Amino acid sequence: MKLTEETYINLAEKVINELSRSKKIVRGREQPIKLITTSKIRNLLAIMMDIKNDILESGTETLTPELAGRIQYLKVRMIYEAGRDESVKEFLRISQLIGCVDKSGTSRKNYLLITRYMEALVAFRKFRGDDE
User: Fold this and answer.
1) Residues 6+ apart with CB under 8 A from 127
2) In the predicted structure, residue 105 carries a pLDDT above the cut 70
3) Residue 62 sits in which domain range?
4) Which of 1, 4, 75, 90 is buried most deeply by CB count within 10 Å?
5) Are the beta carbons of 33 and 41 closer than 8 angstroms?
6) 1 lies in a domain?
7) Number of other residues whose CB lies within 10 A of the CB of residue 118
8) Helix, strand, coil percentages for the chain (3-state, nearest 5)
9) Per the similarity annotation, which family is this (predicted)?
10) What sign does the dihedral 4-10-13-19 (CA atoms) show?
11) How many Å apart are CA 112 and CA 120, to the nearest integer?
């Protein structure tokens, strides 16, 4: 998956469509995996947006060690949430968000692109509906 300014919206739509078709095997039977709730995905977005606001405020192209550390903590939170909820795990696997965070490095531009991708994921998830 190549995340760019031109592809992130289409990628987000494909991810949500694929998630709605995800299956798992339980006792030899195929069952659908519950789609991630909008509240779960918005919780991750809230952390990302907090970091984004601080990045925009800093005004530099290269992230400070503090901001880079907060981005690494974001990765820890994603992994923790994935461990708690199978739908989050499947969401992170298909969206490849953890890999995107890893690749962002200390680049302001890359992190801002990832936040736009996450916003698109939230939008397509909300558009899809199906929350219980």
Assistant:
1) none
2) yes
3) 8-128
4) 90
5) no
6) no
7) 23
8) 70, 10, 20
9) Belongs to the CRISPR-associated Csm2 family.
10) negative
11) 13
| Residue 107 bridge partners (DSSP) | 62
What's the domain count of the chain? 1
Q: Is 111 inside any structural domain?
A: yes
Model pLDDT, residue 38: 87
d(CA 8, CA 116): 8
Q: In this model, does residue 97 exceed pLDDT 90?
A: yes
Residue 97 CB neighbours (<10 A): 23
Q: Which of 3-42 are b and which e, b meaning 16 or more Cβ less than 10 Å from the residue's Cβ?
A: beeeebbebbbebbeebeebeeeeeeeeeebebbbbebbe
User: Whole-angstrom distance between the N-terminal and C-terminal Cα of the chain?
Assistant: 30
Is 3 a domain residue?
no
Q: Would residue 71 count as lying in a domain?
A: yes
Statement: the pTM of the whole predicted model exceeds 0.85: yes
DSSP state of 63: P
- The reported pLDDT for the residue numbered 22 is 73
Q: Which of 75, 110, 79 is nearest to 2 (CA)?
A: 110
Compute the distance between CA of residue 57 and CA of residue 82 in angstroms, rounded to an integer: 30
